Amino acid sequence: MVTTTATTNTDDINLLEEKGKKHNQIIQKTYQNNTDSDYTEKIASLTKKFNYADNSNYYWGKPELSVFYGTPIYEYASDSQKLALNHLYWVTQYTQTAATEANTILYNQITTGVLTKVGGYQTLCQELDLETYQERFHINAFQQIGYKTKISLLGKKFLGNPLYKNHQQEINSDNKLFNLQNWLNKLGFSKTQESFSDSLLRSIVRLMNGNNVKYYSSYLEEKYSENIPITRGGLVAYAASQSFIKFLTLNWGTSPFLASQYYALRMIGNMSLKAYEYSYYKLFKHLEKNNEFIPDPTAVSYYHLLDESFHTTMSQTISQDLYKDLPKPTEYEKLIANIVIYLAQKNIVGGFSAALPHVFRNDVSAMSTFYRFLTSPVFNMSKEDALNWMERSLCNENEGIHLNFKHHQDMIPAMCRFVEPMDFLWPVNREMKIMSKNSSIEKVLHSNTAAFQNFSQSLI
């Protein structure tokens, strides 16, 4: 396996042991096991040899893992169309995963820069460096397989129209409670300009974090001394507007406590991924046991889950346990950490799709993508037919929406168990009240109906 640039030394290990034996043993063991594994190399090999034609006649996951599963569209679809919907589900999910792993690449490096300043976390920094290395191969796999699949099924016209293309616009308009300028104004930072400049954001974060500025990430100092870095897409982009993400980036890159709590957000992403990826894992094991053909994307999902199991362990350990080694958080730091979980409840797991199993957001931003699916060569529908089937499938009760409602209900207690050890959380976050409140078929149908009407009118 790859070796990282950092090296472990005895003093670092001893300091880690002093700070908390159990979770630091987990860090040591996870890093060693991840170093010894070869899952990343297997993903790279599968990516290199992938050819859609060789995999096109097989389901890549169980039929339930298909776009429009359980809706009237799915009942109408032919056998070949159902295969295509199964493959397109894989593509849409892992396109989103690739964008989220780009978030991880950035914030792992920022966190490493903070922990280097704290000292005593050499092995943890090595593990985060290794994860960053692995994520680049994951992203390449998802992009290459997704590109070849979309070209084969949808044609070149579909490229450049990813799922949830307009989600950032929705967050900017629908997230008024945490509009950065309004929120900071309430804290006493008034400004006459339309937006906060990067330099002003730096000044605000420096003021609010006080003594923590000595921990300012060396990665930000070296790579982003002028502009604040931001990744577009992924779960971080769902959480808040771009200006607020910049604000969070500075906080995560300045405060050791807040750096640890980025991994609470990452853990929510890990849990959302595992909700469907474990099904690919089980299919792989079944096919392997019966000596049957294993599609390359199914194998990629299998090895990805094994790689991500190390990352998930780290997300949980850092967010639940590591923060207790650090200086007690200030009221400001607790506020920021709670806002992040609140926004995750609202924008990342605050609902569910009628057309995409295990997607815990409504279909508002996916209407144009669904329309393109139906008018693509896969279905070749007219405008009128596509809109008719969309309305029947997305705006009315059916098996698909009830199934995903159940998935969402199952996720709520799992999220509550994850956040329970974090003693600084507000009750609304500890009990996942926003997520629970939005777990409603009626609410999803209402938002889908409004979004569908707006979309159909835009085509006139």
Q: Counting H and I runs of at least 4 residues, what is the number of helices? A: 22
Query: How big a fraction of the residues is strand?
Result: under 5%
Please compute the radius of gyration using only Cα atoms. Answer: 22 Å
Structurally, the number of domains stands at 1
What ranges have pLDDT less than 50 throughout 5 or more consecutive residues? Answer: 1-17, 161-177
Count of distinct strands = 0
Distance between the termini: 56 Å
Helix content: 55-70%
Secondary-structure element string: HHHHHHHHHHHHHHHHHHHHHH
The average pLDDT value, as a whole number, equals 88
Shape annotation: globular
Characterize the largest beta sheet: strand count, sense, and whether it forms a barrel. Answer: none
Helix/strand class:
mainly alpha
What does this structure look like?
This protein has 460 residues and is mainly alpha-helical. The chain has one domain (10-458). It is 68% helix and 0% strand. It contains 22 helices and no strands. It has helices spanning 10-19, 21-36, 39-49, 52-55, 72-76, 79-118, 122-153, 167-174, 180-186, 198-209, 218-223, 234-239, 242-252, 256-289, 296-320, 331-347, 367-375, 383-394, 399-419, 427-430, 433-437, 441-458. α18 (383-394) packs antiparallel against α22.
